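Batch job 17 of 40 flagged for manual review because the log was empty.
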Amino acid sequence: MAKVVLASGNAGKIKEIQALLPEVQIVPQSAFNVTECAEPACTFVENALIKARNAALHCQLPAIADDSGLIVDALQGAPGVLSARYAGENASDQDNIDKLLQALAAVPETQRSARFVCVMVYVRHAQDPCPLIAHGVWEGQILKQAIGTNGFGYDPVFWLPEQQLASAQLPPETKNALSHRGQAVRQLAALIAAQMS
């Protein structure tokens, strides 16, 4: 089975991606003592490429990286690329949710539209001039309070009108079928398969 390093140490993310890419062995970069690199760019695609190239360089393996986040229309796209660090550098999921709900406290339900975005890239090596790039978008709304215990990040406040549930209320299989990351992984898997055929 081919090994691909994932430029992340996030256990939830590793579990989701491995479930969606069963034909390759996903190894976290932390297994190689590679630490998370800086994400200085202002776009998801640039940050994902920085992370993938860093992981490929240090692990000497093909690498997958994603940069994903929550875009809230009423906040001009925030938290965006800063989603994981919205409430500060070492913020917990709960800290980020609290800051988001506080920022939206005066915003009526009809104006709480948001989307999760995921850009996922695959590089064969650190200098790969033709990285494969996939993109997923998951539309929803921000709730006024958290519900559900599944998932991670902003899942407890991300309402899915079509499901009439929060993302954190979905079983993992359903979340993987619908989510921004699920969309991006499936797209990327198809691109990788086409490149390898």
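Reviewer: the log was empty due to a logging misconfiguration, but the result itself is present. The chain has one domain: 2-196. Unflagging and moving on to job 18.
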